[in-house]
Amino acid sequence: MRDYESIVILTGAGISAESGIPTFRTHGQVSYWEYVDTNGVPKKHRVEDVCTPEALAADPELVHRFYDLRRAGLASVEPNAAHEALARLDREWPGALLIVTQNVDDLHERAGATRMLHMHGALKQALCAACGARFDRGDDLPPGTPCPACAAPRLRPDIVFFGEIPYHMHRIETALAQADLFVSIGTSGAVYPAAGFVRLASAYGAATLELNLERSEGSGWFDESRLGPASQLVPQWVEEMLSR
Ligand code: NAD
């Protein structure tokens, strides 16, 4: 069996599904956000239509409300066995390791992971669109809230919307170039650039492994795919890695 030194792990919404945070796509279906507005009228939006810079410009109340509800929802969820297992690998793996999450929840860090990056931002942070300052936020973010640093009324959720450039791309690409193992967990392979990481890692010579509930769109690019719930597959794989 091949020996590994440097690991990059990409996680997606599927790793948090068993904690009770819904994914955007399962069985290829797009999710809808359904709610009742302040006039008591039922509303339904494609989630992908709410998470865009165009939606923020056209209807800031709607976009802020969507993310405020998601941030509030974090209070009632806990890391699951998959987050715990990755945190254990982070503590015990002697080589290089980087967990890159597409998730905006805080379950990896609450499980204790430290060698990690949020490439799509974080629900518990706000970003000033005027000066670029970032702030931790536990409360709601009404549109027009002034920035504590520059006072411009342009605070927005610190989230990378569809169509925006993810954070930390230089660090991620450097880690992928040095990795000898790339593992993708609970991601549909539909959102780029993350969906392209498997081909990048493979082109640089890494072995590639997918752990997902079902075959993802990019499944054919992986050397190996293991199918099942993350709460079972991830602890098994971590045990394998730590007993090599
Ligand atoms: P996705 O919603 O597009 O796909 C989720 C994948 O997880 C699917 O392939 C599904 O089969 C798999 N899955 C579902 N339950 C699983 C389980 N129990 N175990 C293992 N796999 C499981 O997710 P994505 O590709 O990560 O994301 C698209 C975008 O949506 C990302 O930008 C992400 O930030 C955002 N998102 C984030 C969260 C979150 O922060 N928790 C939740 C939903 C969407």
Give an overview of the whole structure.
With 244 residues, the chain is an alpha/beta fold. It folds into 2 domains: 135 residues, Rossmann fold; 94 residues, SIR2/SIRT2 'Small Domain', CATH 3.30.1600. Helix content is 31%, strand content 25%. The protein has 9 helices and 13 strands. It has a 6-stranded parallel β-sheet, sandwiched between helices. Strands 9-8-10 form a 3-stranded antiparallel β-sheet. A hairpin with a 5-residue loop joins strand 4 and strand 5. Helix 5 packs parallel to helix 9 and helix 7 crosses helix 8. The longest helix is centred in the first third of the chain and has 14 residues. The chain is globular. It starts with 5 loop residues before the first strand and ends with a helix. Bound molecules: nicotinamide-adenine-dinucleotide.
Distance N terminus to C terminus?
A: 9 Å
At the first level of CATH, what is the class of the largest domain? Alpha Beta
Spatial strand order of the main sheet = 7-6-1-11-12-13
Largest beta-sheet characterization: 6 strands, parallel
CATH level-3 fold name of the largest domain: Rossmann fold
Q: Rounded to an integer, what's the Rg over CA atoms? A: 18 Å
Quickly count the helices: 9
How would you sum up the global shape? globular
In total, how many domains does the architecture comprise?
A: 2
The count of strands amounts to 13
